[in-house]
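Protocol step 4 of 5: obtain the predicted structure for the target chain.
Materials: sequence only (see below). No template structures provided, no constraints applied. The aim of this step is simply to have a reference model before the mutagenesis design in step 5. Sequence pasted as it appears in the construct record:
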Amino acid sequence: MSKRNRAMLAVLVGNGIFGFSFLASKIALRSIDPIALLAFRFTLAFAVLNVFLMLRVIKVRFRGKKFGVLLPMSICQPVIYFLCECYGIQYSTSSFSGLMIALIPVVTFILATVVLREAFHWEKFAWAICSVLGVCIISVTGAGDGSVTGRGVLLLTGAVISGSLYAVLSRKCSVEFTALERTYAMFAAGCVSFLTFSLIQSKGTMISAWVRACSEPTFVAALIYLAVISSVLAFFCMNYAATYLPVTQTSSFANITTLVSIVAGVVFLQETFGIRELVGAVFILCGVYMLNRTAAVRSTDKKQ
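Step 4 output (structure tokens):
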């Protein structure tokens, strides 16, 4: 299998894993507050990576390398993105939140042309919009659960910008840092930041909250999924894909997460799947398929 095909598989697996993370988060948040969960998730993820390092299962080498781009990337994702998403959802409706997060591939597409000088093709951009439209169809007619506030809009805009910047900066970092080194830096930043935020918010009661939550087997299972599979494995897949594929291509898979989250809800939470979800799914899949097909045709034409 070529590096390009492995990268395509990696980005598909990564977004598929993220799709199930919404289900795991719903389960985990029954037992603990969002910031404490983020602190627990990224502390456990960072601990797992360090165990692998000590056992020499993985290797990272930062000595002699420049951290100018790596540090902003690690702050954008997971720190800024997760904080903005977490609180943005609190100050808006779930449908509006879904619409905003769906814009990440489009914003990433634009940033990639500006920052990385990737070629801008209107055809690819149109198919990216098609995928976003699929999420809009699924989200905009869904039931509201509150109101959209100015604070919510600003926070979700921050999530969109930070998520898009992460994709662009990860690609830029790939020249000097491996996918594993980028993943390690991200979880180091997430662990330190979310632990600090949680300790301040909980006023020292964070550990006892963790202990109480761990008495529930469903929470432990959800936490392991979020920390090991949806963090370490999924973000490694995304960083690996960013090494070999243009950002405009990797970002096109982002809305696959929406489809997987719907399937997870239907299968495990008995949520409904109707015409709206079916039409939205068709738009998402068409957009992702055609964008990548267009990219493959252009790549073949260049080789010829």
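Step 4 remarks: The chain has 13 helices and no strands. The mean pLDDT is 87.
Proceed to step 5.
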